[in-house]
Amino acid sequence: MPANVSGLAAVAIFAAAVAAGAINAVVGSGSLITFPTLLAFGFPPVTANVSNNIGVIPGNLSASFGYRKELTGQRGRLLPLGVASLTGALTGAIALLALPAGVFKLVVPVLIIGGCVLVVLQPKLSAWVASRQAGRPESDRTSLVLVAGVFLTGVYGGYFGAAQGVILVGLLGVFLADNLQRINAGKNVLVTIVNATAAVIFICFAHVAWVAVALIAAGSGIGGLIGAKVGRRLPPLALRIIIVIIGLVSAVKLIFFA
After folding, report:
1. In terms of Cα–Cα distance, which of 45, 50, 43, 53 is closest to 4?
2. pLDDT over 70 at 134, yes or no
3. Which domain holds residue 98?
4. Is 1 among the domain residues?
5. Helix pair angle (57-66, 7-26), 10° resolution
6. What pLDDT, in 10s, does the model give residues 50-78?
7. Which of 27, 132, 171, 204 has the most CB atoms around it within 10 Å of its CB?
8. Does 14 have pLDDT greater than 80?
9. Residue 135: DSSP 8-state
10. What is the pLDDT of residue 227?
11. Residue 105 counted as domain residue
12. How many domains does the chain have?
């Protein structure tokens, strides 16, 4: 791992974090920008993953705050789903630290590619969710299948996390009758719970690159506010192209050059 973060690396990590915070607020998958950026500057995969997870939390919080109006009336549904997210995140974070680092190194390219596929499919997924919502009365009911799905997404988020927001939007949209903006607001809260829970485990038991964490925290916090405020005006196709290119380059680097 680099002993010091150079000026160029610091600027690049901060800029990537601003972009990731904005993207996380609107789509979810910003870690497909910050995680590869850390890899590019010499951070080992597990350390990069752990540090990125902790660093994006301010962005999650600011995005949730930015969507606070859409969160009105969602407490009843978010309590059981939040518990599922928390327990899933604990499971995933413990698995990350308990398994050999080589396992993560082998698995993460697959996860990155899977995340890129989800980002590409996100417009169709959102359109499908919107079609299911048409004409349905609003409902806060949570089924056991939804709780189980949120738990498994929490496991994934605690272990790696990129594109967990895309998965959550799909799950919530299928099982809850509500508009997409309120679903996205709930997604931001659940992602925050997952990342914060995993962060507690990582801070206690993992090696953390705190300079990288500070840069990502500052950038993602700003980006989360930007995304919640103006994210709906950003060209989604451009965002997806950037995410997929960076993600695929990162996966190739891990497979062939790590």
Report:
1. 43
2. no
3. 7-256
4. no
5. 40
6. 999 999 999 889 888 888 899 999 999 99
7. 27
8. yes
9. T
10. 80
11. yes
12. 1
